[in-house]
Amino acid sequence: MKIVLKVLLIYLLLQIGNTQTCLESKKLDETCGSYCFKVVKQLLGHTNSLQKQVNGQESELKKETLERFANMEQQLRSLKEDIEKPKQNLNEETVKEFQKLYEKIGSKYYYIERQHKINWFAAVHKCHEHGSHLASIQNQQEFNALGPKLKGDHYWIDINDLGHKGVYRSHTTGQATPYFNWYNGEPNNNGHERCVALEERGQPTVQMNDQDCTALNLFVCELFEK
Asked: Residues of the signal sequence (predicted)?
């Protein structure tokens, strides 16, 4: 707008400079006032016309831009739905197939991994991936039911003291662990031993031991209670 006013002023000065009548007349103010009004009126009319055209173009451009963004947003939403739908179906099918491997032991359903050893964090993720969680033993009855099924190796369960050393909690509930069955001298918090596994050390059944969470063990998953 400043540029337009400057152009108008220059144009006006040139027109006035070329008019001998305005320079020679004793009635300079009156003559120039009438003349200038006509010139400025024409220029202002032209300027207003241009401004309306610009405003109209800006409005159309804004409308077109908004329509394009709306169209792009809809396409992205549709694309996301197309991607998520088969992914969701695949996950549901995988969970159903995986959960067929669970067996009822005592009052709960467990999956006991007997081949692939992974660290505690990966075990947590693996169970969650298939709609379950690391085994969360609540009492002596559950321990007595599950223990005999675990032979000759180490198995991750959900107990850990990662939040505060020496304060053991269930990863599943976030609550203090209600039941322990430690080996003698355990937990000893040796080094970085912050996660708990069930181990068999030549005894009739397994017992609990704290281990480094990055150690590679088998694991036990438990279905969420319905």
From this structure: 1-19
> In this structure, how many other beta carbons lie within 10 angstroms of the beta carbon of residue 91?
13
pTM attached to this predicted model: 0.59
Look at residue 118 and give its three-state secondary structure.
Answer: strand
Surface-to-core class of residue 211, CB atoms within 10 Å of its CB (0-12 exposed, 13-18 middle, 19+ buried): buried
Question: Are the beta carbons of 36 and 13 closer than 8 angstroms?
Answer: no
Rounded Cα distance between 7 and 96, Å, is 77
Tell me how crowded residue 155 is: count the other CB atoms within 10 A of its CB. Answer: 24
Please write the tens of the pLDDT for every residue from 98-135. 778 999 999 999 999 999 999 999 999 999 988 999 99
Nearest to 136 by CA among 79, 196, 91: 196
The 10 Å Cβ neighbour count of residue 160 is 22
Q: What residue type is assigned to position 40 of the chain? A: V
